[in-house]
Amino acid sequence: MARLILMAVMLCALASLSTSMTLVSDFQGDTFFDNFDFWSAPDPTHGYVYYTTEAQAKEWNYTFVSGNKVYIYSDHTSIASGSGRGSVRISSRKTYDSGLFLFDIEHMPIGCGNWPAVWTCGPNWPNEGEIDVIEGVNKQQVNRQTLHSKAGCSMTNVARNQTGHTNTVDCNSLVNGNQGCSVDDTRTTSFGVGYNNNRGGVHALWWTSSFIQVFFFPRNAIPSDITSGSPNPSSWGAPVGDWPLGSNCPATNFQNHQIIVDNTFCGDWAGNTFNSDGCSGSCTSFVQNNPKSFTEAYWGINSFKVYM
């Protein structure tokens, strides 16, 4: 009898390690853009960019689908004028308060002047928070993941289980120049040239009422449960970035998020670090006058999926 009880306990423990999830959003192929709105207002991060309307993006061939892969380009043929180089920013029509988000991406914008990002954000920034899943600038070689929040969210002296390098711990967007609380990946396959050479991979955002975690799996190391459509994040081991939620950072600081994809130029980050990142001259002048330098400024996306 004791042996049977022990076996039952072990089976229950194993079952608890499995996370059964249901697919609630599947953005890919010809219907990908049906799930997004195009932002055509000025860039809140003060970039040298002209965000196009959906009609302009289609007309100018910035957005299209080929071979079931989604492409989102920035202008790479013209001398820029006006507010800046043409580009695209899209936001999902659906909003989320939690979930497992899988971003399968093969190519990201790279090079001097670029500031690409895949992120989620609430409607009244920073009160509903921001989660940066992919972000970097210029010649950056590793991905940076960051939380931005209203006051009252900090990772100071919080136990965290992660493989990435912690940069900052105060998530309050109103201090420290809006650096947020960020974690850098340590692998050069996670961003930039190394990322594209390896055909990207899958970025996973696991967001619950207890924690926010971000994983990255390079193309040749994607777990079989992801490729089979039955993701089990409990089996993946430590994430790149781990942000426990609770008294240190209320879960209610992050809610009603849209999925956002964009590529801006210069601005508050890429412009301010342009020279220290190894790029020469003025960021704005470079972006304006060198269209051929932006032939690699595009997203190549296989799919975005959200499980609950």
Q: Please provide the count of β strands.
A: 18
Oligomer: single chain
DSSP strand content: 25-35%
User: SSE order in H/E notation?
Assistant: HEEEHEEEEEEEEEEHEEHEEHHE
Number of helices: 6
Contiguous low-pLDDT stretches (5 residues minimum) are 1-17
Q: Major sheet: size, sense and barrel closure?
A: 8 strands, antiparallel
Overall pLDDT level: 94
| Rg estimate, integer Å | 20 Å
Helix content: 10-25%
Descriptive account of the structure:
By secondary structure, this protein is α+β, with helices and mostly antiparallel strands. Helices cover 14% and strands 32% of the residues. The protein has helices at residues 2-17, 54-59, 192-197, 224-227, 267-271, 283-289, and strands at residues 23-27, 36-38, 49-51, 63-66, 69-73, 85-87, 89-92, 99-107, 114-121, 130-135, 144-148, 165-166, 181-184, 201-207, 211-218, 241-244, 258-265, 298-307. The strands form three sheets. Strands 1, 4, 5, 8, 14, 15, 16 and 18 form an eight-stranded antiparallel β-sheet that branches. A hairpin with an 8-residue loop joins β10 (130-135) and β11. It is globular.
Summarize this structure as a short list of keywords or feature phrases.
single chain, 308 residues, alpha+beta, 8-stranded antiparallel beta sheet, 18 strands, 14% helix, globular
Short overview:
This protein has helices spanning 2-17, 54-59, 192-197, 224-227, 267-271, 283-289, and strands spanning 23-27, 36-38, 49-51, 63-66, 69-73, 85-87, 89-92, 99-107, 114-121, 130-135, 144-148, 165-166, 181-184, 201-207, 211-218, 241-244, 258-265, 298-307. The protein has 308 residues and is α+β, with helices and mostly antiparallel strands. It is globular.
